[in-house]
Amino acid sequence: MVNRQMPLSAAAVASLVLFVAAFVVALPAPRVDAASPPMLIILSPANNSAVGNGSPLLISFIVFNFNFTQPGTNGQTNAPNEGHLHVIVDGNYTELIVQVQTIPLSLPDGAHLIRLQLVNNDHSPLSPDVSAWLSVRMTHGPAGGAPSITILSPKTGTTVGPDVDVSFAVFNFAMVQPYGQKDAPNEGHVHVLIDGAYSQLVANVETVRVTGLSGGSHTIALQLVNNDHTPISPVVSASITVTVSSSTGTVSAAGLTTGELGAVGLGALNFILLIVVLAMLRGRKKETP
């Protein structure tokens, strides 16, 4: 005898669904065990990491054995393992969080110390304190990679005039104005050195104008530095050696070279000849009857 399975009717399926739903609703909500201490863990980013390219800091965290509640509810009192979270940046309260979420923070460049702290409904710390700490470095430069700089022109060994334009390129480094901000990874500006002496600073990738070079050999160096003007570590620089052509001819007491004096004399002679020719032409005109 063959045993056939009878398909369930639509009514039977509906009854089964309603039964399961009623069972789930009847289950008690999970409760926090007040005898177990709360825990708070920062998931990302990693401690002592760098956040590059001017991006905001995004903090992910998780809590255990703690219920988040909105502070300030009428008649609300402190309860074990219940409250919210304070975000503290560099020792200063920043905001409060009432649920597990990603926390975005827009921070200036430089090093920062972040503290996430679980607190009671009245904002007082739990006892014992439950906090998680995070140290990060914010930068407009890339988060990783070794900075470098190269001089594109002129090439070393080139003969130039007393004024010369130097073009360059930087890699893995953000150029920013040094207006008192904290040092940050892979970020800063360029110092221009002439024969080892500081000449000027450059805060943009642009052609550098070096003027007033005396005749002879000179070394022009470009060095990457931090926002506080100290060299980045390890030191990164590029340099070229150029020759400035010296003027030919001796200098007279009037400050003119012999070549310039010759040019002046030739001009005076031409002027005198012009006057003589004009006088001769005027004399001929008077002699004509």
Helicity, in percent?
A: 10-25%
Number of helices: 2
CATH superfamily of the domain at 39-138: Immunoglobulins
- Structural class comes to alpha+beta
CATH topology of the domain at 39-138: Immunoglobulin-like
Quote the average pLDDT: 83
Q: Which percent range describes the beta-strand content?
A: 35-45%
Q: Element order, helices and strands? A: HEEEEEEEEEEEEEEEEEEH
How many strands, which pairing sense, and closed or not: the largest β-sheet? 6 strands, mixed
Number of strands: 18
**Could you tell me how far the N terminus lies from the C terminus, measured between alpha carbons in angstroms?**
161 Å
CATH architecture of the domain at 39-138: Sandwich
Query: What's the alpha carbon Rg, rounded to whole Å?
Result: 40 Å
* Shape by Cα distribution: elongated
